[in-house]
Amino acid sequence: MLKPARTDAAEPSLDARRTVRVWDLFVRAFHWSLVVAFAVAWLTRHSSDTIHYVAGYAAAALVLLRVVWGVVGTHYARFRQFARPPQTVLGYLRDIATGRESRYLGHNPAGGAMVLALIVLIAAIATTGWLSTTDAFWGVEWMAKLHERLADAVLVLVVIHICGVALASLRHRENLVLAMLTGLKRSPEPGDVTD
């Protein structure tokens, strides 16, 4: 049985099929592994010390590896590519509020700031968690409270991050969650920021 021929209208345009690899395998594996490690640590904070410690140390190791990869990794993984000064981040947030923000092939200024904030806070959580197990800080209430408040701050940032990803996905008609799974984003178009 013959299939009907496809019309040009049914074919995706050449531009719609063009993609470029942005997120390398390490960045994608790091991202989703950190999601799992943080979620496990959060969910076991009052129920299982062993699982909580393992998840916390896994998150710490992931952050350490990401810092190294931020220096020696691929173009879009490097800090110098997405770490922007505060005035650039604030300008980008103003552009979002007015609906004039540019599409970035890599992290946009707000996304880059979020990456840095999450790395710093998760490193601080890991540090305070580890310190709480040492002789100097075992049972010290303020250290335990600081550890908990830092975890709360990360949870708030995660919610903001998810909202930012959803907004950018809608505004730029691009599935950023899928991009973090496949590593592929739509090829740059005129007006997009590529470096």
Molecular structure report:
It is a single chain. This protein is 64% helix and 3% strand. It is mainly alpha-helical. The chain has one domain: Fumarate Reductase Cytochrome B subunit, CATH 1.20.950.20. The longest helix has 31 residues. It is elongated.
Topology readout:
Blueprint: H1 14-17, E1 19-21, H2 25-43, H3 49-72, H4 79-82, H5 86-98, H6 109-131, H7 141-171, H8 176-182, E2 184-186
Antiparallel strand pairs: 1-2
Helix pairs in contact: 2-3, 3-6, 6-7
What is the structure about, briefly put?
This protein is mainly alpha-helical and 195 residues long.
Q: State the separation between the terminal residues, measured CA to CA.
A: 51 Å
Average pLDDT metric: 91
Strand order of the largest sheet: 1-2
- The computed structural class is mainly alpha
Helix content bin: 55-70%
Q: What is the β-strand count?
A: 2
Count of helical stretches: 8
Note the main attributes of this structure.
single chain, 195 residues, mainly alpha, Fumarate Reductase Cytochrome B subunit, two-stranded antiparallel sheet, 8 helices, 2 strands, 64% helix, 3% strand
